[in-house]
Design brief:
Blueprint: E1 2-7, H1 15-23, E2 29-32, H2 40-46, E3 51-53, E4 67-72, E5 75-80, H3 92-100, E6 105-107, E7 115-119, E8 122-126, E9 141-147, E10 153-159
Parallel strand pairs: 1-2, 2-3, 5-6, 6-8
Antiparallel strand pairs: 1-9, 4-5, 7-8, 9-10
Bound molecules: manganese (II) ion.
Manganese (II) ion (MN) binds near residues 11, 56 and 112.
């Protein structure tokens, strides 16, 4: 089994990322969907596995890539922050672009509201924000994604209860 932690929109406030790693063990890969605010070295120093980053709309002067594509088992993953696809208004634009790119999974952030759905053969994952959640209840959120040996995946939106 391969475990992926998806986080986003930490905005330089990294305590909840630390708390997340306290409660999630055996992570193989972390994906950060942007708005890192120049603390990628701090985040990487806390983690014991590689972190893939993309830049967000608040990552001024950042050298992080705007988009990333990689393979996760049989799945093609596309990661982007999401502001260029107006994800705060809905996920139709980013869904269409993901399908055009031939992606099986799109990971994004920006809205600070978690989402994990499968539609028309595409998985859409937005972990929400660990620092400034905006969904009802406003608990910091992240997604855990598991790739099993038989090739299928499962996923879950998780919330920090104490932070
Ligand atoms: Mn943000």
């Amino acid at each position: 089994m391969y475990k992926v932690l998806i986080v986003s929109d930490t905005h330089g406030r990294n305590n909840n990322f630390y708390l997340t790693l306290q409660q999630e063990k055996d992570i193989d890969l972390i994906v950060h969907c942007g708005d890192v605010e120049a603390t990628e070295d701090v985040l990487q120093s806390i983690a014991e596995c590689p972190i893939k980053f993309v830049s967000g709309n608040n990552d001024f002067f950042s050298n992080l890539p705007r988009d990333l594509e990689f393979e996760l088992g049989k799945y093609k993953v596309w990661v982007t922050h999401g502001h260029q696809y107006l994800v705060s208004m809905g996920y139709q634009n980013i869904k269409e672009e993901a399908i055009d790119r031939g992606a099986d999974i799109v990971m994004f952030g920006h809205s600070h509201k978690p989402l994990a759905i499968e539609e028309d053969g595409l998985f859409l994952f937005n972990p929400g924000s660990l620092s400034y959640p905006r969904q009802e209840g406003r608990h910091p959120s992240y997604i855990t994604l598991y790739l099993y040996d038989d090739g299928h995946i499962s996923y879950k939106i998780n919330y920090l209860e104490e932070y």
